[in-house]
Specification:
Order of helices and strands: HHHH
Helix content: 55-70%
Shape: globular
Number of strands: 0
Strand content: under 5%
Distance between the termini: 14 Å
Largest sheet: none
Radius of gyration: 13 Å
Oligomer: single chain
């Protein structure tokens, strides 16, 4: 999984919650956020921000489930790749 040059990601911004996050998503979000601060990955950033967009507009927990699963899957993929490179 190629990672773009740092300059391509320098303008990237991680969204933040503006509403209360359901408890079931907090651990995954923390893990993804920590990974993104260590090494920016565009695919993980996109999933992270997509989750927060839907959370912040008030989508119900059931609607967030699929995005949370997608975020978890992408995190696992990025983490496994990163762990294999070290």
């Amino acid at each position: 999984m190629p990672v773009p040059r740092p300059s391509a990601l320098s303008a990237a911004k991680m969204f933040e919650a503006t509403v209360l996050m359901p408890e079931k998503f907090k651990q995954m979000v923390r893990r993804a956020q920590k990974q993104l601060t260590k090494e920016m990955n565009p695919k993980l950033l996109q999933a992270f921000n997509q989750f927060f967009k839907k959370l912040n507009i008030g989508k119900p927990e059931a609607d967030l489930e699929e995005l949370g699963d997608e975020l978890a899957d992408i995190f696992d993929e990025v983490w496994a790749y990163t762990a294999g490179c070290n």
